User: What shape does this take?
Amino acid sequence: MSVARVACRALVGLQAPLVHVEVSLASGLPAFCIVGLPATVVKESKERVRAALLNSRFEFPAGRITVNLAPADLPKEGGRFDLPIALGILIASGQIRPRGARGGGGCETREFYGELGLTGELKPVRGLLLAAAHAQQQGHELVVPRANAAEACVVAPERVRAAGHLLEVCGHLSGAAPLRACAPPRGDENRDAPGARGAPLDLADVRGQLMPKRALVIAAAGGHSLLKLFIIGTECVEIL
Assistant: This one.
């Protein structure tokens, strides 16, 4: 029996708790199970991971594969766990050997994110700005889909590595083809944005959102108080 562990983070409201993706390979009848309170999307990752590995010219291990998303009492949602699961299988089966990071065979100080396409391409996931902020505090490196690089680089440009395919991540993890750190965002990117050059901000610059804008105008005109409610786990905001 061989076991591998890869780090990632879940998204729970405004928190991004660390999740360890533990992969165990054992002899026996072929089986692939994921435990640790996974949502339906996470359970479906079994087929995405299998297809991505095979189409990337890796071998899919025969036998029993058990994936544990620890801690088990934390809800896990989204396709962000596809890449850590795939890497865990490759490490546990000995198809790649992590190098270049202290402890844990190169994975203890690295976090991996990304939904896998059937051919191994990395697709973007949501909530990486929050994950990058937490990883920055712990000094961890992040490997993210290229489409999420700009988002993650806002808070941790020197720690973010962007990749477009599973093979790129494997090359980085093994040390054969390290990924470069993302360039920090330029300070003049928003020079033409409203208010960037001292121009006053105006509600007319906000597109749509008629009811919230009307509530702000009425509150400002009458000196009324405002209460903004953020619904955890969604992008909805209510103004009372």
User: Anything to note?
Assistant: The first strand starts at residue 2 and ends at 9.
